[in-house]
Specification:
By secondary structure, this protein is α/β, with parallel strands linked by helices. It contains 8 helices and 4 strands, in the order E-H-E-H-E-H-E-H-H-H-H-H. Helix 1 crosses helix 6 and helix 6 crosses helix 8.
Length: 226
């Protein structure tokens, strides 16, 4: 009998006036809910508050230190037997570095899957916003939310002035990206991208690709770790 554990990991941070602050987490959880049954895996609550210092100046944002985040993840891992295999589905870029460091220590037991990294090529193929339109609460996340949680997307609260293109933060930007920034310095709405290009149809395409790719990567990991 397998012992596969699926852990959704996100953040709690402002996502403009049109998306809820828990957007990253509920997207990660929905991905887990679609993938885990294929492997008869166990789903646990995961991490709702991530490493988000860049959003701290916004009222509806919470962030924890890298040390505290790492402690919380390791605490979850210790709740299971040594033969457990963990699949960490992460939907917040700020968590990536710490999660990778944890994975390196247990490469035969842990697979970290970051949504933006997995779908990078498909973002470029399907997007209609120019570079800078996809980063935070922009075309991609808003499209996914339109598909998964349409009642929680408040497009009527958006103004054209909320749109903010930041090319250097876009996942499809081909040159060196900034290491540190503060969202408040770049966008008063908290949006880094263009949600006006979002659609449920794009969300469905991207979400299905995510599920397919994540499933394939997990199958490969399981095969190699046997």
């Amino acid at each position: 009998m397998n012992n596969f554990v699926f852990i959704p990991i996100g953040s709690y941070e402002q996502h403009g006036p049109h998306l809820p602050p828990e957007t990253d987490y509920i997207i990660a959880k929905k991905i887990v809910e679609h993938v885990a049954p294929t492997f008869k895996g166990k789903i646990i609550e995961g991490i709702r508050i991530g490493i988000s210092p860049e959003h701290k100046k916004f009222k509806n944002s919470k962030s924890i230190s890298k040390k505290k985040f790492k402690t919380r993840v390791n605490k979850l891992l210790k709740n299971f037997n040594e033969d457990a295999r963990f699949f960490l589905i992460n939907a917040h870029g700020g968590n990536n570095h710490v999660l990778r460091s944890i994975q390196k220590l247990h490469e035969d037991k842990i697979l970290v899957l970051n949504t933006f990294s997995i779908i990078k090529k498909e973002l470029m193929k399907i997007r209609t916003s120019r570079i800078g339109g996809i980063c935070h609460a922009g075309e991609f996340e808003t499209s996914i939310m339109m598909l998964l949680f349409p009642k929680r997307v408040k497009m009527n609260k958006l103004k054209k002035s909320d749109v903010k293109y930041i090319p250097k933060l876009d996942p499809n930007y081909k040159f060196e990206k900034p290491v540190k920034w503060r969202t408040i310095d770049l966008s008063k709405s908290g949006i880094l991208g263009d949600p006006l290009h979002a659609s449920k149809e794009k969300g469905e395409i991207w979400f299905n690709i995510l599920i397919e790719k994540i499933t394939s990567l997990i199958e490969e990991f399981i095969y190699q770790s046997v």
